[in-house]
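job 3f2a | input accepted
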Amino acid sequence: MPKCEGCDKVFEEHILIEGFCAVCRDALGLLLDELPVLRPAGPCRRCSGQEIVQALLRERGAEGCDHVYEFLRPLAVSHGVEDVESFWSGAKKGVQPNLEAYTGALVAYVCRSCGFTELFAASPGEIPIGPQHGTRLLRPNEGAPYR
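job 3f2a | predicted structure (147 res):
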């Protein structure tokens, strides 16, 4: 039976995705198998190189106070927002980003010959718009005369 490349535990083959179990995939912030190929097929637009690397961009961070642990999660265009409640009364104190609820995971496509990199966001139509998400919608031709 195959082993997970992260934790060396033995799993049935259908449990592993690209060689990793669900726990290790989550810990490493891996989701490439869940994302469609966002770049049109073809050679590098700069040097015509034939090898393009698809890479999910991830952010590294740490959480905790007495027991700090590190994490990797997908780098994204925007994150959800959740209410912050008072520990004592349960009343709403404000809002904070929900870092687990991200939208627009960033995927880089890198030419192995020259290093030219293209960046794409997954599910761009689902990216929330508003100051609480750190986004705004720009429409370059809005208000311009019709031609």
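job 3f2a | DSSP finds one helix and six strands in the chain.
job 3f2a | closed
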